[in-house]
Amino acid sequence: MRKFLIFSFLMMLSSVFAYEFEIGDRTITYNPDTLKFYENSITLSKKEVQELFPSYEVILISKFDKNRKYYLKNSLFKTKKVLLLNNDTRTFHNFFIYPTSSRDEFQEYKNGEIKSLITIYGKKNVRLKHFGSDEFEIVVQ
User: Fold this and answer.
1) What is the number of other CB atoms lying within 10 angstroms of the CB of residue 136?
2) Contact 100, 136 (CB under 8 A)
3) Beta partners for 26?
4) Rounded distance, CA 21 to CA 73, Å?
5) pTM exceeds cut of 0.70
6) How confident is the model at residue 103 (pLDDT cuts 50, 70, 90)?
7) Which residues is 118 bridged to in the sheet?
8) What is the pLDDT, as a whole number, of residue 15?
């Protein structure tokens, strides 16, 4: 019972920091601590998120290897847009994208940053990093 109460409190607290934006006639909620998208309090699937952001390649957190690395091919002179989507219970509070030039902006989103949106330039690796040593890295080949 105690675990349930703690979990409920954490879920309520995490929803306080979520941001809402509109795409077409849909109201979407984004939680930067969980890297998840919601509509009517229901978590959106990878397919649904891909439909919202068709120019982005969706990468699931579960696809990172045991060393928290994900290998991606990109040409030296091209850019690639990716969207990180959490399909796990892990949270990403105080995680940021580095280098900062890879942080993508969503033109219709004015209330806060969607840190899941990333632009990869050439062969430059991108990290989702915490102030400590915890990080996830997209290794560009």
Assistant:
1) 20
2) no
3) 23
4) 31
5) yes
6) confident
7) 82, 103
8) 44
CA-CA distance, 48 to 44, in Å (whole number)? 6
Distance CA 141, CA 139 (A): 6
Task: Kindly report the three-state secondary structure assignment for every residue of the chain.
Answer: CHHHHHHHHHHHHHHHCCEEEEECCEEEEEECCCCEEEECCEECCHHHHHHHCCCCEEEEHHHCCCCCEEEECCCCCCEEEEEEECCCCCCCCCEEEECHHHECCCCCCCCCCCCCEEEEECCCCEEEEECCCCEEEEEEC
With bands split at pLDDT 50, 70 and 90, how would you rate the model's confidence at 61?
A: very high
Q: Is 94 left (phi over 0), alpha (psi -120 to 50) or beta?
A: left
Distance, C-alpha 87 to centroid of its chain: 10
Q: In this structure, how many other beta carbons lie within 10 angstroms of the beta carbon of residue 82?
A: 22
Beta strand pairing call for 79-85 and 57-60:
parallel
Torsion of CA 101, 104, 110, 111, to 10 degrees: -80
CA 31 to each of CA 49, 77, 127: distance values in angstroms, whole numbers, following the listed order:
13, 32, 19
Q: Is the pLDDT of residue 51 over 70?
A: yes
